[in-house]
Amino acid sequence: MDPVLLVASIMVSATPILLAALGEMVVEKAGVLNLGVEGMMITGAVVGFAAAVSTGSPVVGFLAAALASAVLSLSFGFLTQVLLSNQVATGLGLTLVGLGLSALVGAGFEGVRAPGMGKLWIPGLAEIPVIGPMFFRHDFMVYVSLLLVAGVWAFLKYTRAGLILRAVGEDHESAHALGYKVVRVRLAAIFFGGACAGLGGAYVSLVRVPQWTEGMTAGAGWIALAIVVFASWRPLGVLIGAYLFGGVTVLQLNLQAAGAKVPVELLSMSPYLITILVLVIISARGVHGAPGSLGRSFHASA
User: Which keywords fit this entry according to its UniProt record (predicted)?
Assistant: First the structure.
């Protein structure tokens, strides 16, 4: 296995998971548990693909995917934050809606090839031997995902809005007593999380596998949820977790291509088995860093 190609492939493989997990981390930081990440990702995948094919522009596809998934996420936000429905049940319903909607919209796009998206060579860095091909010759969404990690970290750590969001997630009743608009903050976080999930889904259909196939996210949304826990709700941890999962995924694909004497089914299962194993170990040691109000509904009269 060529190490240069391996590292470059890991970055591509990790990007959709990173985008979705980062968005979900912000949602959970606000005290909301949205299990509909898979549904939002697959919606982003089909809408992004349809928009890109129709306009010939991958950029339009990504923007359409982000908007569609963000709007879909607001349905979850309205049900859970305004009507106070159960967050777990509503999130699962959102996933089912996304899967069904994507199958309907995508029926006319099967077998169609997505418009190509060129690489963004960073001047002065892309020409560096070994390091250049590894890190500085990717499509623009790889760099957008890394910038989002840095941006979310800075937002949560250094801005007043980030402090308010964390306060709402830790104790929504105290935040409300201080005059903060809990529902508005949570809806904004849910909208951002939906947009990130949509970008992650569009990346799968426009870059990783540049065509539409029903169910093509293949559980990536559930992995994103697991990575948030693995990361202890920290942006850097999300980055590490996404790249570790991407590394395992690329490694098992390379082992299959190399004809490793291991059942293909076991290799295909390995990224998910390792994720489950890590979560079991974390649970046994105790989960740290979870927002205090995570999954709890806010009653304005409280």
Answer: Cell membrane, Membrane, Transmembrane, Transmembrane helix
Alpha carbons 63 and 36: distance in angstroms, whole number: 20
Residue 65 lies in a domain: yes
Q: Is residue 249 part of a domain?
A: no
Q: Which domain, by its residues, includes 146? A: 15-117+136-221
Task: Give the DSSP H/E element, type plus range, for residue 201.
Answer: helix 182-203
**Stretch 227-251: mean pLDDT:** 91
Q: What is the average pLDDT across 47-59?
A: 95
User: Exposed/middle/buried for 212, CB within 10 Å: 0-12, 13-18, 19+?
Assistant: buried
**pTM > 0.85: yes or no:** yes
Nearest CA to 45 out of 15, 4, 10, 16 is that of 16
Taking the alpha carbons of 87, 89, 92, 94 in that order, is the dihedral positive or negative? negative
Given a cut of 50, whether residue 78 has pLDDT beyond it is yes
Q: Is residue 93 part of a domain?
A: yes
3-class SS of residue 260: coil
Q: DSSP state, 137?
A: E
Q: Is residue 157 in a domain?
A: yes
If one counts every other C-beta atom within 10 angstroms of the C-beta of residue 29, the result is 26
CA distance 27 to 37: 11
Give backbone dihedrals phi and psi of 35, rounded to 5 degrees, phi first: -85, 10
Task: Compute CA distances 221 → 16, 94, 146, 158, whole Å.
Answer: 9, 12, 19, 29
Q: Domain tally for the chain?
A: 1
SS3 255: helix
| Domain harbouring 92, CATH code | 1.10.3470.10
How far is Cα 171 from Cα 169, in angstroms, rounded to an integer? 6
